[in-house]
Amino acid sequence: MSKDVVVDIQGLTKSFGDRKIFRDVTLQVHQSEVVAIIGPSGVGKSTLIRCVNYLHPFDQGTIRLLGHELRGGERPSAAVLQDIRTHVGMVFQTFNLFHHLSVLDNIVLGPVEVKKVPRKQAVERAHELLEMMGLTDWAKAYPRRLSGGQQQRVAICRALAMDPKVMLFDEPTSMLDPELVGDVLEAIQRLAQQGMTMILVTHEMMFAKEVADTVVIMADNAIAEMGPAKQVLENPQTERARNFLARVLRNTPPADIPQAVVGGDPD
Amino acid sequence: MHVAWLYLGPFLQGTGVTLELTIVSTVVALVAGILGALGMIHGGKILRAVLVVYVELVRGLPPILQLFIIFFGLTQFGVQLDAFSAALIWLMVYGAGYAIEVFRAGIQDVSEGQWEAARSVGMGYFTTLRKIILPQAFALMMPELTNFTVLQLKNTTFVFFIGVADIMYQAQQGAASTEQPQVMFVMAALFYLVLNGGISRVAALVERRLTAYR
Amino acid sequence: MSLFSIWGQYFPSYLQGLGVTIELTVLSLALALVIGFVLALMRLSKVRGLVIVATVYTDVLRAIPVLVMLFIAYYSLGAIGIKLSGVEAAVLTLGAFYGALYGEVFRGGISGVDPGQREAAAALGLPPSSVMRKVVLPQAFLAILPPATNRFADIIKDTSLVVTISVADLMLQSYQAISATYRPMDMLGLAAIMYFVVYLLVSRVLARWELNVQRRRS
Ligand SMILES: Nc1ncnc2c1ncn2[C@@H]1O[C@H](COP(=O)(O)OP(=O)(O)OP(=O)(O)O)[C@@H](O)[C@H]1O
Ligand SMILES: [Mg+2]
């Protein structure tokens, strides 16, 4: 494996009970690379990235990351699991902020509990992150007071507070009202520019084209096509990729998207 | 184990008493519970206040104290009840207090739209209640009603203390005369287990019929 | 003798009885909470054996009347050489029975927490025990509090069963006062007032607390 490969997925196969979700997925993610995964609903995109931090076990294949190797059918030790999850940040479709904790405590929890960072230091860092996301005023609020877009940006702060080596995003904007999508996408784009390695499941085609280095199209229980973003999206080689893109692009009014990428004001 | 066989007869007699108390008091309590719940939902201010106090008293005072008040307490005012009547009255009063809450929740769980739909085809209050609301409420409430019946059965055990010859009483008598409480009370536990198992079985059958429409 | 002077005369012994009632309640509650928590964890675990044991325990204890269990603990165990005092037997019985009920309450509360919360915590690298302590339990707490409060009030009432095994709680004090005074309603009335005050205190104070927690989190 070449030196700057951060996540190396080889021959991954996964089923839930009798149901095969995908088979033989091979994918490498390099340092500072942004990989966007797209594909029809239910094809297993979420499942795939959840295998990376082992929220789901898988049946066959290996995932190498952070000097560890996860193997299909073998439960990793608690120490390995914790090390991986500590250094892999995840942002969920439904935000999943801890409802019983303030915005600040949501961000501070991981560093203090897992990395044993002194609370004072963790709080300082949390404030920096909130400022970066334009959420300075919300530190003391409880998550449910915030709009979806704000909640998702807090969730990004929560993941970043762990200083992750890799970030996983699972459709971070699909639960948001259209006018709130821009802020979140902008935050992700900024992370990409800062060199964060990311795997991103998304339905925002234009955003994928703009921000991702590599696009992976999943269809029919496997990877249908993968390659440089522009090439795959504009000039897909396989039949299945073409079919999928034709279906999606027909349903997406193109005018909306560039505007979303440019983003509105961060509040 | 012959001691157990010897006492099978008395235990079966006790079972008769226990079941009589359970069934009669449950039926009465359920009817009172429905009326009380309607009073709570649709009644005037005063009626509601009275019902709230009633429910709170029943739920707030120890069961055995309530039984004592009915059996011993009332004698101070010249009301002398025999043990069985006192037991039955207490079980009804006590059960009704709990049933009101069960039915209130159940009836309120049936959507307001059902009342309106029934009204819109010209049904009156009680017809709507009987034909539309209660059948749905019963189906929704089956788990709570099963629970309720089990609770009533368990509450009957207290009445042995004033001398009603239920299962508990027979066990107590048996324990005293055989000096084998380890047999008698375990036997009583088994009897109650079986009876409660029976209640749950019957309730499951009823529930299946009531929820057939779903 | 007037009602109040007779109440005044018996009040000290009633207070003593109330002390026993409260002692029984606190001890039983503590035992029940521990048993309930263990049962909930067993039923939520993926180990079949544990799930079955906890389920059978819960179903059996809920089907047997508490009074029968109390007599088994007090008389039956005594007859086979395990002599328990009245208080011990009562605490064991109420703890075991309410443990089963609390097990259900906790299980309901814990499994009601959105699985996304658990996942988010796990994704941060929190070990399972911290996920439980820092994220799941605090959130389950709100759902658990109301039914847990009701059970608590029920324990207070059920401690009165010890009158049947001659433990000198509030119930027994009033029962004995009946035969000494021949004024059953008056003597039971005083006990009723005392029980009811405790009941109101417990249910209202806890309800207030519930409301506060709820408010703080929204
Ligand atoms: N925990 C689970 N147990 C069983 N089946 C599951 C589980 N999680 C997902 N699935 C199934 O696996 C399939 C893939 O799900 P997944 O969520 O990965 O799809 P997806 O590509 O992310 O879809 P979407 O775009 O709708 O989010 C779906 O059919 C889903 O029903
Ligand atoms: Mg998904």
Please sum up the structure shown:
Chain B has 214 residues and is an all-alpha fold. Chain B contains nine helices and no strands. Chain B has a single domain (2-213), classed as MetI-like (MetI-like fold), CATH 1.10.3720.10.
Question: What can you see in these coordinates?
Answer:
The complex is a heterotrimer of chains A (267), B (214) and C (218). Chain A is of the alpha/beta class and 267 residues long. Chain A is built from ten helices and ten strands. In chain A, the strands form two sheets. A six-stranded mixed beta sheet of chain A has the order 6-7-8-3-9-10, sandwiched between helices. Chain A has a four-stranded antiparallel beta sheet with strand order 2-1-4-5, with helices on one face. The radius of gyration of chain A is 18 Å and the shape is globular. Chain A starts with a strand and ends in a 5-residue tail after the last helix. With 218 residues, chain C is an all-alpha fold. Chain C has a domain of 152 residues: MetI-like fold (Orthogonal Bundle), CATH 1.10.3720.10. Chain C is flat, with a radius of gyration of 21 Å. The interface between B and C is large, with 40 and 43 residues. The complex binds adenosine-5'-triphosphate and magnesium ion. Magnesium ion (MG) binds next to helix 1 of chain A. Adenosine-5'-triphosphate (ATP) binds next to helix 1 of chain A.
